[in-house]
Amino acid sequence: MYQARSLPDVKFSGTGLFKHEYVDSKRISKFEERIVMVEADCETRAEELILSEFGAYAIEGISFIGVYDIREMYPGEGPVIEVASTLRIFEGTEEEYVHRYWNDLRPESCDKVGWVHVWFCREPGLSACYNCQEERVGELWRDS
Ligand SMILES: [Zn+2]
């Protein structure tokens, strides 16, 4: 029987929707679904704590857009704890679902959607784009 749990008293999860906007107009705004856990003796207290944390997180270009979901967490028997889940009604195929809700996190390349790459240093000698999934050899962030 498994007994060790690293988060024994966590009782609620909160999922909040945030928007990231940037001073650099070439960077594309992003929406973030952020999930936190909280220990509280009731859902009302959990909601207070979570909304307070969401407000503290929303600084410097990040805004909490007021959409959130609070769920009571149920302890399981094993080492894995479900933190949050999203159930969507969708009539398409698995491939269509993945395309619409999973691969849309960032496009494959800015070139395919008409955006401008905004490079940053992924690691020495390797550039990555804030807007898309592209990485290129070189220090391209120095030119932007
Ligand atoms: Zn890009």
Secondary-structure blueprint:
Elements (H helix, E strand, L loop, with lengths): L11 E9 L9 E9 L4 H15 L4 E11 L21 H9 L7 H4 L5 E5 L2 E4 L5 E3 L7
Antiparallel strand pairs: 1-2, 1-3, 4-5, 5-6
Question: Care to describe what's here?
Answer:
By secondary structure, the chain is α+β, with helices and mostly antiparallel strands. It has a domain at 1-87. The protein contains three helices and six strands; from the N terminus they run E-E-H-E-H-H-E-E-E. The chain has helices at residues 43-57, 94-102, 110-113; strands at 12-20, 30-38, 62-72, 119-123, 126-129, 135-137. Strands 2-1-3 form a three-stranded antiparallel β-sheet, covered by helices on one side. A three-stranded antiparallel β-sheet has the order 4-5-6, with no helix packed on it. A hairpin with a 5-residue loop joins strand 5 and strand 6 (135-137). The longest helix has 15 residues, at 43-57. It is globular and about 55 Å long. The mean pLDDT is 88. Zinc ion (ZN) binds next to loops.
